[in-house]
Design a protein that fits this description.
By secondary structure, the protein is mostly helical. The chain is 57% helix and 0% strand. It is built from two helices and no strands. The protein is elongated and about 35 Å long.
Length: 60
């Protein structure tokens, strides 16, 4: 699967819905899973890390 990347900026973007944010977190979480070599057992850690990354980009 292709690498998922995204850019989030505050300038002219409308507020993001919770569903939009969760979608970005899910994509980033899957990217982390793939980066680790698709090893299972780390879903929660991937989700938490993805949340930190996505929410950090949103708050800028």
């Amino acid at each position: 699967m292709a690498k998922t990347t995204f850019k989030i900026g505050k300038s002219s973007n409308p507020p993001m819905s919770k569903e939009d944010i969760n979608s970005l977190i899910a994509k980033k979480s899957y990217e982390l899973y793939e980066k680790r070599g698709r090893k299972s057992g780390y879903a929660l850690q991937d989700w938490i890390e993805a949340e930190k990354i996505v929410k950090g980009k949103i708050s800028r």
